Amino acid sequence: MNHALTAAAAGFGTGLSLIVAIGAQNAFVLRQGVRRDAVLTVVGICALSDALLIALGVGGVGAVVVAWPGALRAVGIVGGAFLLCYGALAARRVLKAGTGLRAEGEATGSRRRAVLTCLAMTWLNPHVYLDTVFLVGSLAADRGPLRWTFGLGAALASVCWFSALGFGARLLGRFLARPGAWRMLDGLVAVTMLILGVTLITGS
To answer: Label partner for 187 (CA 20 to 30 A): which of 23, 96, 160, 198?
Structure first.
C-alpha cells in the first residue's frame, strides 16, 4: 500500500509540475472560467484528454510514435497556425475599445465553439504529447508494476488543476468585470498565443 501511495504521489507531483505553467490551454481555461462560459465542459475535455494521453504513454504508445518524428512536426505546424489565428483575434479585442466581457451573468459564447477551440488547444499542441505521452510514459515505466498507479496520480493532478483554474477563476469576477481588466487578460492571451504559435511553427 505504501509503495502504491508513493507511486501515486510521485505521479501527481509530476503531472502538476508539467501543467502548472502559462500556456495556450491554461490561458483558454482561465478565460472561459472568468466568463463562466461552458466551464464544466472545457474542464472535462482538458482533464479527460490528459487522462487519455497519459494512458497511451503508460501503455507504451510513446515508444511507437517516436519512430515517426515527422508526426510531431506536422502537428506543430498546424497547431502553431491555429494559435497565431487565435492570438490575432485576442489582439483585435484588445485594440477595440469598449469590448470588455462581463464576468458575471449569462455567458454569451457558443458552447460548440468553446468545445472545438478547447479540443484544438489540446490535441494540436505537440508539447502535450511530449509531456504526457513521452515524459510521463517514460517515468511511469520506471515504476514497473506500479506504472498505472503513477499514471493515475498524474491524471488526478490534471483534474485538480483544471478544476481549480476553471472554477476558481470566478473569484476574479469582480475585478475582471471592468472592460479594462478584460483587455489586460486578452492582451496576456494574445501574447501567449502568438509566442507559442511562432515557436511551434519555427520548431524552436
So the answer is: 160
